[in-house]
Specification:
Layout: H1 24-32, E1 47-54, E2 60-61, E3 64-65, H2 66-79, E4 84-95, H3 100-117, E5 120-129, E6 137-146, E7 162-165, H4 171-181, H5 197-206, E8 212-217, H6 222-233, E9 237-241, H7 249-258, E10 271-275, H8 280-288, E11 297-303, E12 310-313, E13 319-321, H9 325-329
Parallel strand pairs: 4-5, 9-12
Antiparallel strand pairs: 1-6, 2-3, 4-6, 7-10, 7-11, 8-10, 9-11, 12-13
Length: 336
C-alpha cells in the first residue's frame, strides 16, 4: 500500500494521486490552462489513435525533458500516418519525493509542446509510486488525429523514389548519453525533440496528392528501424548513402567516443520522407522552408530488389546489408 505520509528531505513534496494540493494531475491541468478541454467536440473524418510511452534517463536534461519528449512522440506517431494531430490524453506515473520544481518544469514543457503542435489535451491522469520504483517520471500519451488527406503507407513505395531527412541524425541520443556520461558534447548537440505534424502538412500541401509515399520518425532504433519498416511494408529494396547522412562534426565526434552508429542512434525530431523522384526538389524546398526542416537533405532511394532488403553504400562505394542490432543484442535494450 502506498504511503504518502513518510518524511521527505527539505525542498521535496510527498506527491499524491488524490485531490491534495500536490496532486500531479492538478499540476498538469493547471499548467495547460486553456489548452485543456475535457469535453472536446466530435472531430469529422476517420479517427486515428496512437499511444506512446516515454522514458528517458535522465528525465530532465539540457534543452528539454520528458514532458516535451512525450508530447512530441505522440504527435509524431500520428503525423507519420498522414493524420492531422488534434487531441492528446496524458497519463503520468511520478516517483514519490520528486521535487516540486521538476514536476512544474515537466508540466510547463508539456504545455509549450502542446501549444507548438497545435493540439489540445482532452484528459489527464496521474499516479504516484514509492521512491526508487521508477526514474522520477514516466509519461504515456495517447494521440487522436483525423485524416484530411489520404493516409501515408510504405506499401506505396516505388523504385526510383527518393529518401529525404529533415534534420541531422541521432541528436537526442548524443545529447542524453553525453550528459549521462559527463562527456560535455551535450553543450554542442541539443536534443532535437520537436512536434512534426506541421512539417508533414507543409510538405504534403506543396506536392501533388500522391507524391509523398511514406513518413517515419528516426526515433527509438534510429533511421535503421524506419528504413527496415519501409522495406518490409513495400515490395522494394531500400538503399542509403553513408556519405549523404547528415551528421554534424560535433555529433560525429560524439558518436565515435560513445561507440554509436548514427544509423541506429535515437532522435526525436528527424523526419524521414519517401517522395516520388520528380518531387524531390519541391519536397526539399518545402522542408527547408520550415523551421524544423532547414537542414533537410536527400540520403537514398528505393530500388528494385528483394522485399525487406536494406543496404548502405559505404564511403568507398561498397554495398553492405543493414545489420539488425536488436537481434545482435539478444533481447530488449534499455531505452534512452
Amino acid at each position: 500500500m502506498l504511503r504518502d505520509d513518510l518524511p521527505l528531505p527539505v525542498g521535496q513534496v510527498a506527491l499524491r494521486d488524490d485531490a491534495g494540493a500536490a496532486s500531479p494531475a492538478r499540476v498538469l491541468v493547471a499548467a495547460l490552462g486553456d489548452l485543456y478541454d475535457a469535453e472536446p467536440a466530435p472531430e469529422p473524418g476517420p479517427l486515428v489513435v496512437r499511444t506512446t510511452t516515454s522514458v528517458v534517463d535522465p528525465p530532465f536534461y539540457g534543452n528539454g525533458d520528458i514532458g516535451r519528449l512525450a508530447v512530441c512522440a505522440a504527435v509524431n506517431a500520428l503525423a507519420v500516418t498522414g493524420a492531422l494531430p488534434r487531441r492528446l490524453a496524458l497519463a503520468a506515473v511520478v516517483e514519490a519525493g520528486l521535487p516540486a520544481a521538476l514536476l512544474h518544469r515537466a508540466a510547463d514543457s508539456v504545455r509549450e509542446a502542446v501549444r507548438e503542435a497545435g493540439v489540445r489535451v482532452a484528459a489527464v491522469d496521474a499516479r504516484v509510486v514509492r521512491a526508487g520504483e521508477i526514474d522520477q517520471m514516466t509519461l504515456c500519451v495517447t494521440g487522436f488525429g483525423v485524416f484530411t488527406r489520404p493516409p501515408l503507407d510504405a506499401a506505396a513505395l516505388r523504385p526510383g523514389d527518393r529518401i529525404l531527412l529533415s534534420a541531422p541524425l541521432g541528436s537526442h541520443a548524443v545529447h542524453v548519453l553525453s550528459l549521462r556520461a559527463g562527456l560535455g558534447y551535450e553543450y554542442h548537440v541539443p536534443s532535437d525533440a520537436a512536434p512534426l505534424g506541421g512539417l508533414v502538412e507543409t510538405v504534403r500541401a506543396a506536392l501533388p496528392a500522391d507524391a509523398v509515399r511514406a513518413a517515419g520518425v528516426a526515433g527509438e532504433g534510429g533511421l535503421a528501424a524506419v528504413l527496415r519498416g519501409f522495406a518490409a511494408r513495400s515490395e522494394c529494396a531500400v538503399r542509403v548513402d553513408e556519405a549523404a547522412l547528415p551528421v554534424p562534426y560535433g555529433a560525429r565526434e560524439a558518436f565515435d567516443v560513445l561507440g554509436l552508429d548514427p544509423l541506429y542512434a535515437a532522435g526525436a525530431g528527424c523526419l524521414c520522407l519517401v517522395v516520388a523522384a520528380d518531387a524531390e526538389a519541391a519536397a526539399l524546398a518545402a522542408l527547408r522552408g520550415h523551421r524544423d526542416g532547414r537542414l533537410a537533405t536527400a540520403v537514398g532511394r528505393v530500388m528494385d530488389g528483394p522485399r525487406g532488403a536494406v543496404e548502405v553504400r559505404s564511403l568507398d562505394g561498397g554495398l553492405t546489408p543493414l545489420r539488425d542490432e536488436a537481434e545482435e543484442a539478444g533481447g530488449p535494450t534499455r531505452l534512452l
